[in-house]
Design goal:
The chain crosses the membrane at residues 21-45, 57-77, 84-102, 114-134. By secondary structure, the protein is mainly alpha-helical. It has two domains: 9-136; 139-173, no CATH class. It is 71% helix and 3% strand. The protein contains seven helices and two strands, in the order H-H-E-E-H-H-H-H-H. It has a two-stranded antiparallel ribbon with strand order 1-2. Strand 1 and strand 2 (53-55) form a beta hairpin. The longest helix is centred in the N-terminal third of the chain and has 27 residues, at 11-37. The chain is elongated.
């Protein structure tokens, strides 16, 4: 099923979803490319500093792959970009917790340190928030495409309400 057929375009939402995915993707791409350019050891657990964070070759490749997913989502846009950013943001937060547990162990294959964990949490929340913008809330406006999808009968009721009120007003005169 094509999202564009099911939901009308909302340019404000699409801009936020695309910009969030694209900007975060570019940041991760830059980090990954800097790590690969430094010729870091691929599986080094101690890591070397790149842009203020600890990194190794594997983390650089993972960063580039994640950036590619986010940038593809930004290019596609719409619900796809929103879904991708929510999922990637959640994975970043989960990665922060997992790597926090693996600090100072031989299983720390991504060479994480505390600044990496903090970055993972912050970046995950930023990415997920960009994806949830205008999609997840208790008070979405009635013209929001996600609200209309969750309340399919309400749109017909809203269209009938002014006519019904006009009919009632016409009878009271």
């Amino acid at each position: 099923m094509d999202f564009r057929d099911e939901f009308p375009a909302d340019r404000r939402l699409a801009r936020v979803h695309r910009a969030g995915a694209g900007l975060c993707g570019v940041v991760l791409l830059a980090f990954g490319c800097l790590g690969l350019a430094d010729g870091l050891a691929f599986f080094g657990t101690t890591g070397e500093r790149v842009a203020g964070l600890s990194s190794n070759g594997l983390l650089s490749v993972v960063s580039i792959a994640t950036a590619a997913v986010l940038i593809v989502g930004a290019v596609i846009g719409g619900r796809t970009a929103s879904t991708i950013t929510i999922a990637v943001g959640g994975l970043f937060v989960l990665s922060g917790f997992v790597n926090l547990a693996l600090l100072d162990s031989g299983a720390n294959v991504l060479a994480f340190r505390i600044p990496n964990v903090v970055f993972s949490f912050v970046m995950g929340l930023v990415i997920a928030t960009c994806g949830m913008y205008g999609r997840v809330s208790g008070k979405l406006p009635f013209d929001n495409p996600y609200w209309r999808h969750r309340h399919p009968g309400a749109q017909q009721q809203q269209a009938a309400a002014p006519a019904a009120r006009a009919g009632i007003a016409g009878r009271t005169r």
